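Researcher: Structure prediction, please.
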Amino acid sequence: MTSRTTPARAVLLAAGLFAMAACGTTTASGSGAVADPSPVPSLTQDHAAQAAAAVARHDKRFPEVAAGCQGRESAAPTGSAAPDGLPTDPAARKYAENHAYRNEAGLSPAARCRGEAHAARITAALGGSGGKAAPRTAQELGGLLTGMGYEVETGDVYASSTGGLSFVLSIPESGPCVTGRVGPPVSVKAHGPYLEGGCHEPRGGH
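Model: Predicted structure follows.
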Protein backbone atom coordinates (compact mmCIF):
# COMPACT_ATOMS: atom_id res chain seq x y z
CA MET A 1 0.00 0.00 0.00
CA THR A 2 1.48 3.34 -1.01
CA SER A 3 1.57 5.91 1.76
CA ARG A 4 0.60 9.46 1.03
CA THR A 5 2.32 12.51 2.35
CA THR A 6 -0.12 15.22 3.24
CA PRO A 7 0.81 18.82 2.49
CA ALA A 8 1.08 19.61 6.20
CA ARG A 9 3.38 16.64 6.77
CA ALA A 10 5.49 17.66 3.78
CA VAL A 11 5.96 21.12 5.27
CA LEU A 12 7.00 19.66 8.63
CA LEU A 13 9.40 17.24 6.94
CA ALA A 14 11.01 20.02 4.92
CA ALA A 15 11.33 22.17 8.02
CA GLY A 16 12.98 19.32 9.88
CA LEU A 17 15.50 18.70 7.11
CA PHE A 18 16.29 22.41 6.96
CA ALA A 19 16.82 22.58 10.73
CA MET A 20 19.16 19.57 10.63
CA ALA A 21 21.19 21.12 7.83
CA ALA A 22 21.41 24.44 9.66
CA CYS A 23 22.21 23.13 13.11
CA GLY A 24 24.80 20.45 12.33
CA THR A 25 25.08 16.70 12.63
CA THR A 26 23.09 14.24 14.76
CA THR A 27 24.92 12.31 17.44
CA ALA A 28 25.06 8.52 17.24
CA SER A 29 23.16 8.21 20.49
CA GLY A 30 20.20 10.03 18.94
CA SER A 31 20.30 12.72 21.57
CA GLY A 32 19.56 15.35 18.95
CA ALA A 33 21.39 17.77 16.68
CA VAL A 34 24.65 19.23 17.87
CA ALA A 35 25.07 22.80 16.73
CA ASP A 36 28.07 23.52 14.58
CA PRO A 37 28.97 27.01 15.77
CA SER A 38 29.29 29.51 12.98
CA PRO A 39 32.16 31.96 13.05
CA VAL A 40 31.21 35.12 14.93
CA PRO A 41 32.87 38.36 13.84
CA SER A 42 35.34 39.53 16.46
CA LEU A 43 34.31 42.62 18.38
CA THR A 44 37.91 43.76 18.13
CA GLN A 45 37.78 43.44 14.36
CA ASP A 46 34.51 45.38 14.25
CA HIS A 47 35.99 48.15 16.38
CA ALA A 48 39.12 48.31 14.22
CA ALA A 49 37.02 48.53 11.06
CA GLN A 50 34.87 51.30 12.53
CA ALA A 51 37.96 53.20 13.68
CA ALA A 52 39.55 52.89 10.24
CA ALA A 53 36.37 54.15 8.59
CA ALA A 54 36.25 57.12 10.97
CA VAL A 55 39.87 58.03 10.24
CA ALA A 56 39.13 57.82 6.51
CA ARG A 57 36.27 60.31 6.98
CA HIS A 58 38.59 62.58 8.95
CA ASP A 59 41.26 62.43 6.23
CA LYS A 60 38.71 63.32 3.57
CA ARG A 61 37.54 66.25 5.68
CA PHE A 62 41.06 67.51 6.48
CA PRO A 63 43.22 66.45 3.51
CA GLU A 64 46.14 68.70 4.43
CA VAL A 65 46.40 67.05 7.86
CA ALA A 66 46.11 63.58 6.36
CA ALA A 67 48.85 64.29 3.82
CA GLY A 68 51.34 65.12 6.56
CA CYS A 69 50.55 62.01 8.61
CA GLN A 70 50.61 59.29 5.97
CA GLY A 71 52.59 56.18 6.86
CA ARG A 72 52.38 56.62 10.61
CA GLU A 73 51.89 53.39 12.55
CA SER A 74 48.62 53.19 14.47
CA ALA A 75 49.92 50.79 17.13
CA ALA A 76 51.92 51.42 20.29
CA PRO A 77 50.09 54.35 21.90
CA THR A 78 52.28 57.07 23.35
CA GLY A 79 51.60 58.61 26.71
CA SER A 80 50.24 56.79 29.71
CA ALA A 81 46.73 56.30 30.97
CA ALA A 82 48.07 55.93 34.50
CA PRO A 83 51.23 56.88 36.43
CA ASP A 84 54.16 54.50 36.06
CA GLY A 85 54.19 54.06 39.79
CA LEU A 86 52.54 55.55 42.85
CA PRO A 87 54.61 57.21 45.59
CA THR A 88 55.48 55.14 48.63
CA ASP A 89 54.70 57.98 51.03
CA PRO A 90 51.09 57.44 52.19
CA ALA A 91 50.08 61.11 51.88
CA ALA A 92 51.65 61.49 48.43
CA ARG A 93 50.14 58.20 47.34
CA LYS A 94 46.68 59.32 48.42
CA TYR A 95 47.13 62.60 46.57
CA ALA A 96 48.12 60.76 43.39
CA GLU A 97 45.13 58.44 43.66
CA ASN A 98 42.74 61.36 44.22
CA HIS A 99 44.06 63.15 41.13
CA ALA A 100 44.11 60.11 38.84
CA TYR A 101 40.99 61.52 37.15
CA ARG A 102 43.30 63.96 35.37
CA ASN A 103 45.12 61.16 33.57
CA GLU A 104 44.78 61.15 29.81
CA ALA A 105 44.45 58.19 27.47
CA GLY A 106 47.48 57.45 25.34
CA LEU A 107 47.56 58.35 21.65
CA SER A 108 48.84 56.20 18.82
CA PRO A 109 51.57 57.83 16.71
CA ALA A 110 49.02 58.40 13.92
CA ALA A 111 46.51 60.05 16.27
CA ARG A 112 49.25 62.16 17.88
CA CYS A 113 50.44 63.28 14.45
CA ARG A 114 46.93 64.34 13.49
CA GLY A 115 46.39 66.11 16.80
CA GLU A 116 49.66 68.05 16.56
CA ALA A 117 48.90 68.95 12.93
CA HIS A 118 45.54 70.36 14.00
CA ALA A 119 47.21 72.27 16.84
CA ALA A 120 49.67 73.82 14.36
CA ARG A 121 46.84 74.60 11.94
CA ILE A 122 44.86 76.43 14.61
CA THR A 123 47.93 78.25 15.93
CA ALA A 124 48.62 79.58 12.44
CA ALA A 125 45.00 80.74 12.08
CA LEU A 126 45.35 82.66 15.37
CA GLY A 127 48.39 84.49 14.03
CA GLY A 128 51.12 82.35 15.51
CA SER A 129 52.36 82.42 19.09
CA GLY A 130 51.92 86.18 19.18
CA GLY A 131 48.22 85.88 18.44
CA LYS A 132 48.23 88.69 15.89
CA ALA A 133 45.00 87.43 14.30
CA ALA A 134 43.40 86.13 17.48
CA PRO A 135 39.69 86.87 18.01
CA ARG A 136 38.73 89.15 20.87
CA THR A 137 35.47 87.46 21.91
CA ALA A 138 34.31 83.90 22.49
CA GLN A 139 31.76 84.31 19.70
CA GLU A 140 34.49 85.34 17.23
CA LEU A 141 36.73 82.47 18.32
CA GLY A 142 33.89 79.97 17.96
CA GLY A 143 33.15 81.31 14.48
CA LEU A 144 36.79 81.00 13.46
CA LEU A 145 37.04 77.37 14.61
CA THR A 146 33.70 76.45 13.01
CA GLY A 147 34.84 78.01 9.76
CA MET A 148 37.95 75.81 9.87
CA GLY A 149 35.77 72.69 9.96
CA TYR A 150 35.70 71.96 13.69
CA GLU A 151 32.57 71.08 15.64
CA VAL A 152 32.23 73.61 18.44
CA GLU A 153 29.80 72.55 21.15
CA THR A 154 28.40 74.59 24.03
CA GLY A 155 31.18 75.22 26.55
CA ASP A 156 34.01 74.44 24.12
CA VAL A 157 34.94 78.13 23.86
CA TYR A 158 34.99 80.23 26.99
CA ALA A 159 36.54 83.22 28.70
CA SER A 160 38.48 82.94 31.95
CA SER A 161 37.93 85.16 34.96
CA THR A 162 40.69 87.44 33.66
CA GLY A 163 39.07 87.72 30.24
CA GLY A 164 41.43 85.43 28.35
CA LEU A 165 39.88 83.11 25.76
CA SER A 166 40.34 79.34 25.77
CA PHE A 167 38.92 76.43 23.79
CA VAL A 168 38.66 72.65 23.95
CA LEU A 169 38.00 70.61 20.82
CA SER A 170 37.48 66.95 20.04
CA ILE A 171 38.86 66.44 16.55
CA PRO A 172 36.07 65.01 14.37
CA GLU A 173 36.34 61.26 13.71
CA SER A 174 40.04 60.76 14.53
CA GLY A 175 39.74 61.23 18.27
CA PRO A 176 42.55 63.39 19.71
CA CYS A 177 41.72 66.46 21.75
CA VAL A 178 43.14 69.91 21.06
CA THR A 179 43.15 72.45 23.87
CA GLY A 180 44.20 76.03 23.42
CA ARG A 181 44.57 79.38 25.11
CA VAL A 182 44.45 82.60 23.13
CA GLY A 183 47.26 84.76 24.44
CA PRO A 184 49.44 86.36 23.92
CA PRO A 185 51.15 84.02 23.96
CA VAL A 186 48.96 81.56 22.07
CA SER A 187 49.25 78.03 23.42
CA VAL A 188 47.64 75.08 21.61
CA LYS A 189 48.36 71.41 22.36
CA ALA A 190 47.06 67.96 21.42
CA HIS A 191 46.33 65.25 23.99
CA GLY A 192 44.27 62.13 24.58
CA PRO A 193 40.82 62.24 26.17
CA TYR A 194 40.60 62.14 29.94
CA LEU A 195 39.89 58.77 31.47
CA GLU A 196 36.61 59.99 32.90
CA GLY A 197 35.49 60.87 29.41
CA GLY A 198 35.75 63.74 26.97
CA CYS A 199 38.31 66.41 26.20
CA HIS A 200 37.35 68.81 28.99
CA GLU A 201 39.47 68.36 32.11
CA PRO A 202 37.31 66.92 34.92
CA ARG A 203 36.63 69.39 37.70
CA GLY A 204 36.79 67.03 40.67
CA GLY A 205 38.47 63.93 41.97
CA HIS A 206 37.58 60.96 44.16
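Model: The CA atoms of residues 27 and 81 lie 51 Å apart.
Researcher: Thanks, that helps.
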